[in-house]
Structure formats: C-alpha cells, structure tokens
Amino acid sequence: MILAYYIQTLNPFIWQWDDTSYGIHWYGMAYLTGFVIAYLLMRKFVRDRRMRMPPEKLMDFVLFVAIFGVLVGGRLGSALFYDPHMLIDFSPPFPYWGLLKLQFGGMSAHGGILGVLITIWLFARWNKLTFLNLVDCSAMVAPIGIAFGRIANFINGELYGHIWHGALAVQFPTELTMPPSSPAEPTVSADQVNQLIQNVLANDPVMQQSPSVMHAMLTNPTAEIVNLARHQDQYVIAQLREILPPRIPSQLIEASLEGVLLFVLCYLIGRRWNKDGVATGAFATLYPIMRIIGEQFRVGDHPQMIFGFWISRGVLYSIPMFFLGLAFWIWAIRRRVPVSEIVSAARIQNHKTESPKNL
Prior knowledge:
By secondary structure, this protein is mostly helical. It is 60% helix and 5% strand. The strands form three sheets. It has a two-stranded parallel sheet with strand order 1-4. Residues 355-359 have low confidence and may be disordered.
C-alpha cells in the first residue's frame, strides 16, 4: 500500500502584492507574535518585581532588542555564518543589497542570540540597569519566538527533514527551487524536473487558459510550478506527488524542542531560582542541546565533512555554545548573590503572598 503523503502547499504570504515577492509574510507575522508575547510576559515580570526595570522603560527595551538584537543580529549572523556573499551582492531586485533582501529569507538563530546579548548589554549600560537580570528575563521568553519562527519555516517549506516514509511524512514542492545543500541527500533528479515541466506545459489545463501563467512557466518553470501548487492546481499537485520524496517535518520537531520544551524548562528554572544568571545559563546550555537533537532530523545547512560524517553548521556553532553556556551556568549557580538580588528575591516572595486586593 502506497501512503498518500501530505503535500505542503501552504502559501507563505498572508497578503501578496500582485504575485510579486512583496507582501505580508507568515514569517514576519511569526516574529511579531513572538515579540508581542515576550512583551506581555515581561510586563508581568515587571509587575511581579522579577524584572528590575521601570515599567515605562519596558516598551523601549523590547523594541530595541527586537529590532537591533533579533532582526539585525539574525540577519548579520545569516550573512557571516552561512552566506557571506550577501554582504557584497548588489543587484536587482529592490532593495538591491543582498543583506537587505529580506523577502528572500535568511536569518540565523545563533546570530540573533549574539545580537540580543549585545543589545541587552548596551541597554543595561545606558539605563544603569542590571545586565544579568534583563538577560535572564529575556532567556525565559525567547523560546516562544523560536517556536513561532520554526512554524513559519514549515509554512515556507524550508529547512525540511531527511527522507522518511512514515505516515506523517510531508512532501515539499519548494524542494524544486531549494534543493538540499548536502551532497549526500537524495532529491529530485534533473531528468524528473524536466519531464515534470514538459508534462505541465503540455497537459495542464491552466496553461491553455492563462497566457500570463504560460509566460511565467516558460520564464521560470520550477518557481511557477511551486506557485501553481500553492494555488491548488490539481494537475501540478498530482504530478508532484509522483516525484517528490517524502520528508520528516523537522521544522515542527524543532518548534517542539527549541520552542515549547525549551520555554517550559527555562521558565520553570527562572521562576524556581531567583538568582540572576541561572535562567540565562539554562538557555545557553539547553538551546544547543535541543538544536543538535533537532538537526539530526533535518537536512543541514551547508554541511561540512568531518571525520567522514556530514555535520551541519548549525551543529558546529552549537557545540562551542554548549560548553560556554555550561561554564556560565555553573558560574551563575555558584556565584555569591549581591545584597540587591537578595532584597529583590524577598520582594518577589512577599509579592506572591500578598492578597489579591492589595495587588
């Protein structure tokens, strides 16, 4: 019996401007949702006196970290760690510089983490706040944004997993335009793609009814096939089912590990230990573990051959992060607590025991 695998034809746009690459993406909405939830949780931290910050500074903090830490840091990290060509790519379409062509994606989690650390340090220094306290509260909520980002990766049809013939496997039409970067990963052959293009041109009823679609098909056939699948062209979908390999939905696995599970662990650790640095150490140690586990299901980005094995850059960047995070976590647990933190912890405890009418 041949399984009827789910074929992922979700549109990455919430709203699109006349079939261009411009519009409102689910990916951008995922970031926005993560920032909003982070703000709401941090507002609760401020109210509970867990986050030692004047309430009027919170919105500035979230916007500063979101823009310059997550977005700028993530984009620069993508260029420096994965695709340095973006820094020197000056070509159409708008906005002409590869680093600014956000419509084509490209964000690095490790770059975003470094960017967040730098921006929090700057914000704390400029506003005379405690860096460890701010970064701790950020570490407790950051996995939520990671979870939404991984779900958006699934909607975009990117960062898909290894070939798998299980009942929950998924076929990704985007594999035609974004084939695996690993030389060891099987994919659709050039002959299969050429035959698919010929079949669609000759037999798809949409080709006979729409000159504009025919023109797009002749100009950029693989991209147009993906576009037709997203518009539920049943002939194209049936053809893709025959040639696309079924894959692990690794994006959803990573959303569960790096997002949901990591959030639960960091949040509980941060609430249990009222000591600055402990939640940060937990995140810096546990995130690379979750990332390395998740990478085993996923076709890695730009893998390197090391000791006879293909190892993705995501794993390579996570290994030093794990050891640095573990060393920091041990230091944070063992360090002496300043009087200011003891007083803050006592206030948090007293706040918990106050009656609701006094809150």
